[in-house]
Amino acid sequence: MFLFMKLPPPPSSYSLMASIYASLFLRFILLLVLVSNKTMALLKLPENVSVPAVFVFGDSIVDTGNNNNNMETSARCNFPPYGKDLRGGIPTGRFSNGKVPSDLIVEEFGIKEFLPAYLDPNLQSSELATGVCFASGGAGYDPLTSQLAGAIPLSGQVDMFKEYIVKLQGLIGKDRTTFILANSVFFVVLGANDISNTYFFSHIRQLQYDIPSYTDIMINSASTFLEEIYELGGRRIGVFSAPSVGCVPFQRTMAGGIERKCVENYNNAIELFNSKLSKQIDSLTHKFPNTRIAYMDVYTPLLNIILNPQKYGYKVGDRGCCGTGKIEVTFTCNYLNPTCPNVLDYVFWDGFHPTESVYRKIVVSVLNKYLYQLL
């Protein structure tokens, strides 16, 4: 009978073994954190389909705080009364009274409760493998839109994503990173600022292009961006349509006349853009057959709620909860302005952004409608 004993490695290999064990232990701890952070999934996913993470690019509708330390932009909201219904009323840079679509999406997938901003100085390494938000309030498909707002442009958001990939590879390795990127869902929410701010409000682009030409520029930018995400490993991409900006309180006040009606030409421009975006996404789907890219209509459900608030349980659809509700947004919606007695009565939180309640209705509806196209 022979006794087999595992001999210790030679002294020169101790440091290598220790490094390997430390790396494996770190990955084990990270896995435990990821499991403990999961919430109960509300969406019913197909069998044998997993969504390990969510990544969001876009503007203030989905920004979860990337603009907080950006002193070049006025598109910040990390002060009261923003976030009054979130985490004990602490403002986090979310442009609403509570959660924004980024958070609600990861909640619906059962991944975690909030989607952190990539530039959050307190971002934990354990959050990276389940997704982050790269969006920046004021951004647009048109680079000039982000420049005018001092926001992080789409190209800058892509650069952050590239940096993120390197960080994740360092934490969990290249193979696992590739798996996460291929099986996660990417969401893109842009277009409103291009039409409302850059084209109509600033008039700069009006001097150069008509609406058909300008929307072509937006589509070209959107297409380039989606191809970049594909090249970086994204295979499931949901692209939100631009919303009905002509009916937000601010635009009604500024361009809707005495009666503050919805601004028809703004919405017409958005509808043209959305039509082109839908067709472009169909084209990209055929170009990248192993990729699922879905056009997700938020224009219609939001407009329905705005025009028929009572039908959806709201009382006010043409004013925001903050201040007079007719114009206040970002710095003009502050602790000096009163807020409405009951935010659940309002479709809008400020002059641009819906309440968490409205966001939740739209996110649930849109995900249930388009999920099969993404998975």
Question: Could you list some keywords that capture this structure?
Answer:
single chain, 375 residues, alpha/beta, Rossmann fold, two-stranded parallel ribbon, 11 helices, 6 strands, disordered N terminus
Molecular structure report:
It comes from Lupinus albus (White lupine). GO terms for molecular function: lipase activity. Belongs to the 'GDSL' lipolytic enzyme family. This is Putative triacylglycerol lipase. This protein has 375 residues and is α/β, with parallel strands linked by helices. It has one domain: SGNH hydrolase (Rossmann fold, 3-Layer(aba) Sandwich). 42% of the residues lie in helices and 7% in strands. The protein is built from 11 helices and 6 strands. A 4-stranded parallel β-sheet has the order 1-2-3-4, sandwiched between helices. The chain has a two-stranded parallel sheet with strand order 5-6. The longest helix has 24 residues, at 14-37.
Please give the structural blueprint:
Blueprint: H1 14-37, E1 54-58, H2 101-109, H3 143-149, H4 154-172, H5 174-183, E2 185-189, H6 192-201, H7 211-231, E3 236-240, H8 249-255, H9 264-287, E4 292-296, H10 299-307, E5 316-320, E6 346-348, H11 356-374
Parallel strand pairs: 1-2, 2-3, 3-4, 5-6
